[in-house]
Design goal:
The protein is mainly alpha-helical. It has helices spanning about 1-35, 40-50, 55-80, 85-115, 120-164. The protein is elongated and about 60 Å long.
Length: about 160
């Protein structure tokens, strides 16, 4: 069981790192760059990003890691006698709630609303100013949750290495 857990935790690390790294880029410079552009240009750029994000290179790790995080939660509760159960539980919860749920409940609805708007409409420019702040705040939550999940998965691997 520990060998399977070790492999699963390492796969989780890979998925969280890819997803979290992409989200980190948005929090640290992409959204700031879009904000510096004239509103219609920034809006159009984000609308295109929202269309092109649906690639296997991002969506694959995002959803596979989401499934792994749910599995981690279940496996943690099934193995409360193991040293690694709490870090595994924390890693799973952080990603499942802090990345997946926040994406579904926070960022995606904002993206969908922006995608239905006309970039040249002054009302869209007003929405864009709020969007930049709110979307980025939610994204900071996703980045923080990703880094926390990464930490706990690494701790899990460390504990599993001690039991081998």
């Amino acid at each position: 069981m520990d060998e399977i857990m070790n492999i699963a935790a390492r796969v989780g690390i890979f998925g969280v790192a890819i997803t979290g790294g992409g989200l980190f880029a948005f929090s640290t410079f992409i959204m700031a760059a879009l904000k510096r552009m004239p509103d219609p240009e920034g809006i159009r750029a984000m609308q295109q990003i929202n269309k092109t994000v649906f690639t296997p290179w991002f969506i694959g790790p995002f959803f596979v890691t989401s499934a792994i995080s749910v599995g981690a939660i279940v496996l943690a509760f099934m193995n409360t006698d193991r040293d690694w159960w709490i870090p595994l539980l924390c890693a799973g919860l952080l990603y499942a709630i802090g990345v997946f749920v926040v994406t579904a409940a926070g960022n995606v609805p904002l993206n969908e609303k922006l995608d239905r708007m006309d970039a040249d409409d002054p009302e869209t420019a007003e929405f864009w100013k709020r969007y930049l702040v709110v979307w980025t705040r939610w994204n900071h939550v996703r980045v923080t949750a990703s880094m926390g999940s990464l930490y706990f998965l690494t701790e899990c691997v460390h504990l599993l290495g001690q039991t081998s």
